[in-house]
Structures are given as C-alpha cells and as structure tokens.
C-alpha cells in the first residue's frame, strides 16, 4: 500500500523525518488503513491531530510506545509529529509486529535515527527485558485497542478479528468497564504504570459510543488522573459487523450504546477547535443527545444507505 505522507498526516509541508510516500505492508491480521478516505482512519483523523496538539502543549515525546500497533502507522506518525526517537511497538500477532517494524524502518529518511523495540504478545509484556523491576519506560504510551468480546481466543485470532475483538481475560475488571466494552483499555491502564517515565502519560483512543463520564471513571478506577484531551468523530468502518456486534452486546444486557448519522456529526463539530474540543466535549455530547441512534436504528439506517459515524475520545491519563 502506498500512502502520500503529507496528505495522510495533514502536514503543511514535506515530511521532515518520513519519506514523502509511505510503502506499507499490511498482513492478514492487521487492520486495513483507510488512506484514501481519512475520515474512516483512526491514525489520520484522531491520533495524529492529538499527537500534534501534545507536541505543541507538552513538547517532544522522545520515548513513544504503541500497544496494538497494527501496521505501525501510529509509530510513524509519532516519529514525524511528536519527535519520537525511541519507539516501542507491540501486537498480538508475530506477523503484524514483524511487518510493522519493517514498515517503520523502511519509511524513515534516517533509519539509524531511532531505537526500535518490538515484540508480539499481550499488551506491554513483550517489551520486558526479563527484569520485572526495571521495564523500559516511555513518555507516551498510546493505545487504540479493540473493544468487543468474543467467546474464545481462537475466534479472535482469525484474520483481522483481533483488530476489533478481544478474547476472554483472566483479570478482575469492574462491571461498569465490562458493560461499556472498556475491558482491555482498563487493563492497559493498569499495566502501563510501571512502563511510564516520571511525568509520562497514556493516551487512549476509544470510540465514544458510551457516555463521556464513563471514560473519566475508567481513569479513576485504574488509579489515574484522566482528562478528555480531544473529542472528535469518524465514520464507522466495517459498519455491518461493528454496529451489529454492539447490537448483540446490548441485547445481552451490556451498554446501552449509541451512534449518529455522519452529517449530524459533521454539523456538530463544525467550527470546534482541536484545542478546545476536550474542554467542550460534554457540551457537544448534550447537543448531540437528541440525535443518538441505538445500534438497531444505526444498523437499519446504514442498510438504507446512510453514512453512520460515532464520536471518538482521546483520553490522556497520568498516574494519580
């Protein structure tokens, strides 16, 4: 896959650290980027703007880690926009991590300008060097992890299923986190504490199909001070499957969840600056409330040809 770097990352000029055209290998287990329609793409639409804002407000984030990196585009975005020079990447599949590491190295103008730490397995565990008391530490740990539970690990491992679904977990998780499909995000926060540099933070990107208050509750339950750093929206990808999965979860007693028509989201967020979007998130949520679609309504509308979207939260969390 070839990607125009400046267009994908919305750069004002040619990229400084990345090649002008990215050559990205996507394995059968990795989520497909939406480089041609960026409103459907997490890295282009949500992560990169948040990275740019972090750079302006907090300065260079030299040590960056991505949990569940997929193709490695999130790490490449961090190198270009956050000034990261030490990169950690993990994913649950060996082929995904190998491809991501190759994608990162081959798309840099100066591959020797970064230190790359990569491993496959559960969350941050692949990055441990064997010393539990002294794991690698990062200034920013980024995660955009899957939400939807499946019955067994084998089901989650099929093709690209792991990009949006999680197998059963052994950890104790608060009921409110399970009901709101935040299980893996909550566990990631718990595990990230020992991998953060002093002053370091976790940036969690999560689809906002649940009330905003639940995200800050997640941070509190995990022992963090959390803020809604940015608030935005994107078009729902794989709509038939993902909306349908939310419908089934809600019918089984979880949720409730909500979606919106994309044109309503575009109107609500028109004129909202990135810098103030987090501060104004609750006001935007209240404005949108009359136009919420249940999963059943969203699926019916999508099947009639309407474009369905959802809000997205970038939650920045620092250990309390």
Q: What profile does the largest beta sheet have? A: 8 strands, mixed
At the fourth level of CATH, the homologous superfamily is: Vaccinia Virus protein VP39
CATH class: Alpha Beta
Number of domains: 1
Estimate the helix proportion, in percent: 25-40%
Which ranges are low-confidence, i.e. pLDDT below 50, for 5 or more consecutive residues? none
By helix and strand content, what is the structural category? alpha/beta
SSE order, as H and E?
A: EHEHEHEHEEEHEHHEHEHEHHHHE
CA-based gyration radius: 18 Å
The separation of the N and C termini measures 42 Å
CATH fold field value: Rossmann fold
Q: How many helical stretches?
A: 13
User: What global shape is seen?
Assistant: globular
Question: What are the key terms here?
Answer:
eight-stranded mixed beta sheet, Rossmann fold, 13 helices, 320 residues, alpha/beta
Structure description:
The chain is of the alpha/beta class and 320 residues long. It has one domain: Vaccinia Virus protein VP39 (Rossmann fold, 3-Layer(aba) Sandwich). The protein is built from 13 helices and twelve strands. Strands 3, 4, 5, 6, 9, 10, 11 and 12 form an eight-stranded mixed beta sheet that branches. The protein has a two-stranded antiparallel ribbon with strand order 1-2. The longest helix is centred in the first third of the chain and has 17 residues.
């Amino acid at each position: 896959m070839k990607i125009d770097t400046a267009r994908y990352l919305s750069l004002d000029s040619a990229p400084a650290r990345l090649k002008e055209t990215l050559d990205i290998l996507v394995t059968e287990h990795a989520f497909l980027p939406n480089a041609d329609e960026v409103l459907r793409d997490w890295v282009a639409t949500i992560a990169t703007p948040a990275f740019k804002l972090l750079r302006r407000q907090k300065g260079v984030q030299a040590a960056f880690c991505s949990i569940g990196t997929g193709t490695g585009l999130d790490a490449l975005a961090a190198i270009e926009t956050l000034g990261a020079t030490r990169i950690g990447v993990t994913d649950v599949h060996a082929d995904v991590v190998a491809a991501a590491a190759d994608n990162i190295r081959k798309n840099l103008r100066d591959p020797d300008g970064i230190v790359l730490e990569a491993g496959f397995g559960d969350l941050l565990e692949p990055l441990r060097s064997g010393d539990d008391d002294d794991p690698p530490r990062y200034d920013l740990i980024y995660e955009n992890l899957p939400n939807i539970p499946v019955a067994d690990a084998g089901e989650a491992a099929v093709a690209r299923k792991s990009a949006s679904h999680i197998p059963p977990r052994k950890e104790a998780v608060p009921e409110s986190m399970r009901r709101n499909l935040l299980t893996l995000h909550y566990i990631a926060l718990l595990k990230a504490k020992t991998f953060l540099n002093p002053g370091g933070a976790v940036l969690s990107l999560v689809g906002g199909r649940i009330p905003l208050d639940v995200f800050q509750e997640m941070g509190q339950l995990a022992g963090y001070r959390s803020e809604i750093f940015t608030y935005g929206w994107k078009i729902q990808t794989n709509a038939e499957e993902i909306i349908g999965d939310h419908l089934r979860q809600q019918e089984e007693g979880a949720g409730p969840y909500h979606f919106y028509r994309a044109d309503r989201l575009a109107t609500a967020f028109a004129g909202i600056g990135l810098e103030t979007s987090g501060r104004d998130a609750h006001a935007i949520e209240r404005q949108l409330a009359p136009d919420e679609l249940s999963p059943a309504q969203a699926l019916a509308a999508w099947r009639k040809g309407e474009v369905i979207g959802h809000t997205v939260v970038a939650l920045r969390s620092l250990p309390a």
